[in-house]
Amino acid sequence: MQVPRPSVREAASMYGTAVAVFLVILVAALQGSAPAESPFPFHIPLDPEGTLELSWNVSYAQETVYFQLLVRELKAGILFGMSDRGELENADLVVLWTDGDGAYFGDAWSDQKGQVHLDSQQDYQLLRAQRTPDGLSLLFKRPFGTCDPNDYLIEDGTVHLVYGLLEEPLRSLEAINTSGLHTGLQRVQLLKPNISQPALPADTRTIEIRAPDVLIPGQETTYWCYISELPAGFPRHHIVMYEPIVTEGNEALVHHMEVFQCAAEFESVPHFSGPCDSKMKPERLNYCRHVLAAWALGAKAFYYPEEAGLAFGGPGSSRFLRLEVHYHNPLMIKGRRDSSGIRLYYTATLRRFDAGIMELGLVYTPVMAIPPQETAFVLTGYCTDKCTQLALPASGIHIFASQLHTHLTGRKVVTVLARDGREREIVNRDNHYSPHFQEIRMLKKVVSVHPGDVLITSCTYNTEDRRLATVGGFGILEEMCVNYVHYYPQTRLELCKSAVDPGFLQKYFHLVNRFNSEEVCTCPQASVPEQFASVPWNAFNREVLRALYGFAPISMHCNKSSAVRFQGEWDRQPLPEVVSRLEEPTPHCPASRAQRPAGPTVLNIGGGKG
Fold first, then answer.
1. In sequence order, what are the beta bridge partners of 95?
2. pLDDT at 24
3. Which H or E run includes 167?
4. 3 state DSSP class of 366
5. What is the distance between the alpha carbons of residues 267 and 261, in angstroms, rounded to a whole number?
6. Are 337 and 463 part of one and the same domain?
7. CATH number of the domain where residue 183 is located
8. Which strand ranges, in their side-by-side order, compose the sheet holding 377-383?
9. Could you give the CA distance from residue 280 to residue 7 in angstroms, rounded to a whole number?
10. Do residues 276 and 134 both lie within one domain?
11. Does residue 93 come out as left (phi exceeding 0), alpha (psi in the -120 to 50 range) or beta?
């Protein structure tokens, strides 16, 4: 039996009445959570051409994201949504489409073959459709969690946004297959923390670190390095805030930027402006690794807490800074010039505490390895109670921001705080981590770490496309597992990481030799990467390596900024004992489904308001 459908005019009239009510609710929901200048403070271009622009805001009270999607050149419709890694298959979608007579907006999903289906549970709700001088503006909302098996759970970490453009009218939504569309993806953190912005000191000054007039190469990926120099005699200051400067028109090309300070032992660093992988790059640029600022697409200004600032300048601090800009240019656009960079806000009135940056996770060493063809292999690094007891002040430290880091096979990263053998809280977690999207993220809640606490950092890797083991190291085809935590007050502890005891790893190689006909060279002259390369990766060898990493003693690096360990015995240390683990959070389902539409919303997008 067919349910009578209202005419487009009747639907538009009913819809117009509902819009007024929805907008009142929207303003109330966002009251106090958005800066006064805009109810949608976060913006990103979705596509390289800049024809799709997304703005959004978050209501934590309602556990809802409000989206505003601007479509500058609408043809027959658009798909927008989210998926695990940015694929259009198995995606959670909202679709605007036309059959030639009417226009429709509906919640949908795609299966593993890319076929689109209307969702029986309509969780994307359209609030407004309006023609503007810039194009079609769609305002809609979506709860964080819906308890719909076809929907994506919106979490704190990275979200892979996907889109597809419809060129021709369709007889039905089910006629869409994403494989035939012009599609793309954009990575972003949707759930920005709702924290107040501290007031800047009266004597705040700014300095812009930007590479002047760069001719962006006509290739998909470029990392551009530029050396900048602070004035001679620049005294000690505190950085209290920084923000991006993106050249107008290049918003879709500038993917992320970082400012690094060079090592203080070099009195000079050669000036350079060019690709970071250029053979002409001076060797000393490799010693510019101390992060001062990091920005990625979709992020706004970064503020330090009122009581802390990041020190730079003065004795023992290098005057040389390296700006690194990642250009993402999938259309291979040529001839585009750029002068993007980062603006640092600093004060001579030093705050109560120096902020510090500490490395957690795994030591950069080949003894930690991931077998090939793994979908989710986990490696874990520890900052042990013995190290925090020795190196942290009695009052503890306070972590307010975090930057997670792996190389190409990293898929998930999490750091957990444990105390007295029990996991207490998550420091930072990203279940959809991408090595192509790394930023310093302010935490929603400051995490206090006390002497005797343990910090456990775990990384999940996917090596399905690799034939050999992936070992730890500095190379891009090697792996890392790091959390750079930003905290105060600064201590002498700069690195708190671990790796499996090398002697126990050699016992693993000996065991492999006993149970396999293929010999693994365990002779002293063989390097660990060579040993891993000769392991036959059957189920036994995989599981034994996984088990080894789960019980073998560790070598701890409890290091000062001078790269020297704190005094004590750090080799063959037992793994920290954790007897109680945090439960996985249960998605919160919206209380009422009564207000959701039963099917697609009918609307008129021919002109004026929908």
1. 79, 106
2. 35
3. none
4. coil
5. 13
6. no
7. 2.60.40.1210
8. 377-383, 454-461, 410-419, 422-430
9. 67
10. no
11. beta
Q: DSSP for 106-149?
A: EEEEE-TT-BEEE-SS--SEEEEEEEETTEEEEEEEEES----T
Residue 476 amino acid letter: I
Place of tokens 């795994």: 362
260: tokens are 């690094």
- What is the count of structural domains for the chain? 3
If asked whether residues 86 and 223 sit together in one domain, one would say: no
Domain limit, last residue, from 192, 225, 259: 192
- What positions carry a catalytic annotation? 223, 405
Q: Tell me 201's DSSP state.
A: P
* Structure tokens belonging to residue 304: 């330090």
Please, what is the Cα angle at 520 between 514 and 526, to 5 degrees? 135
Residues 6+ apart with CB under 8 A from 32: none
pLDDT (0 to 100) of residue 15:
35
Instruction: Note whether 332 and 386 are same-domain residues.
Output: no
Residue range(s) defining the domain that contains residue 240 = 195-351
For tokens 């060079």, name the residue: 262
Positions of the chain with pLDDT lower than 70, given as ranges: 1-38, 524, 562, 591-595, 604-610
Q: Are 248 and 360 found together in one domain? A: no
Pairing of strands 356-362, 493-500: parallel
